[in-house]
Amino acid sequence: MSIFAVVTFGVAVLLAVPLGASPLANRKVSNQSNSLGPLTFRADGTFQISIFEDLHFGENAWDQWGPQQDINSVKVINKILDKESPGLVVLNGDLITGENGFLENSTVYVDQIVGPLVTRNLTWASTYGNHDYDFNISGDAILERERSWGNSRTSPMVSGPDAGVSNYYLPVYDHGCVNEYSCRPRLILWFFDSRGGFKYQQKDASGNRVGQPNWVDTSVVDWFNQASSGLTKRYRKTIPSLGFVHIPPFASYALQDAGVDPNKEPGINDDLQLAPQAQGWCRDGRNDGTCTYGAQDTKFMQAISHTKGLMALFSGHDHGDTWCYKWDRLLPDMDVTPVNNISLCFGQHTGYGGYGNWERGARQVKVSKKGLAKFEADSWIRLESGTVDERLDDVLPDL
């Protein structure tokens, strides 16, 4: 058995919220957003997640083509949610094509994205991607817009100028839990900000936008290690967990380079080579076009591959990849040897913005209390057509 079985892997409702957004001066540190109750399993002992990624709203906003892509993307979300009934929706990065946005209204696209979720009274959690950071938009601004809606659970837990915004965790409790402080979590969901893109409202001496590092910062890794250890100590057990980050770690690149077998790791493998964290940076911190990979995500890879119970990490960013691969060995050109055999997975390009003509869709992840006892979960990809990608019926090995 694997931790993943079946790996076949409208109209938006708008509320009156002010146009535009400004970076948050103070971030609320919490593991629950607004007045939402805790995430819980269904009465049948299952919990399902729908992952929408690379939506790229707001692309080419000045012509007819761009707004039509946003309409098409909303249709994708609606079609998938007509077939699936998740307990949580994850917006896994690149919600908006920030470089096409205007300062005055660059975050208004959040309303279109979450409209289908609000209509169905679904709750969601986000990570932010490289296109969510640019001169006229920031993760802080998107977060502020998200939290004007009561269903958002995106709630940063790490502060600091280099941390990014979407770093936090969400516990999932037994059915019937109404107070998180009196319940024990069955599952932990980790969200990481891989940053990238450009810094908000900053230009260099030549008038060019200032690039932002494209990896999970070491301060976030330190927080993750401490928080994960703290949860294990508090509950005196290893709690099964899943992770989400927009840009994949370099280990995904190395696994792809070693060879993605369509019989063992089925799915699309068209982005060759994929674009990992720290791509284009030098080891000394330069980003001047002279280096291909700076290895700044090594600490992050060490953490995710040595955390007991962390079953899988889900990424987007590379629109032409949808495979899952168990990272169970030391890979060439790497010095991180995994311990927990974590599976590194891609979803499916959801939005009509962004590059590529692959059929749109969204990866689904479903866990059960019985399966989690063996650190197992099921996953499949629901396509815009309403079908499940029949190629992705592989089962990934246990941890």
TrEMBL record:
The superkingdom of the source organism is Eukaryota
Know the name of this protein? Calcineurin-like phosphoesterase domain-containing protein
Q: Which UniProt keywords apply?
A: Signal
Please name the InterPro entries in this protein's record: Calcineurin-like_PHP (IPR004843), Metallo-depent_PP-like (IPR029052)
List residues of the Calcineurin-like phosphoesterase domain: 54-250
Keyword Metal-binding tagged: no
> What GO cellular component is one of the record's annotations?
cytoplasm
Q: By its UniProt entry, which PANTHER family does this protein fall under?
A: METALLOPHOSPHOESTERASE DOMAIN-CONTAINING PROTEIN (PTHR32440:SF11), PHOSPHATASE DCR2-RELATED-RELATED (PTHR32440)
Q: What is the lineage of its organism?
A: Eukaryota, Fungi, Dikarya, Ascomycota, Pezizomycotina
Q: Which Pfam families match?
A: Metallophos
Regions that span the bilayer:
none
UniProt source species: Xylaria hypoxylon
Q: Where is the signal peptide?
A: 1-16
| A GO molecular-function annotation | hydrolase activity, acting on ester bonds
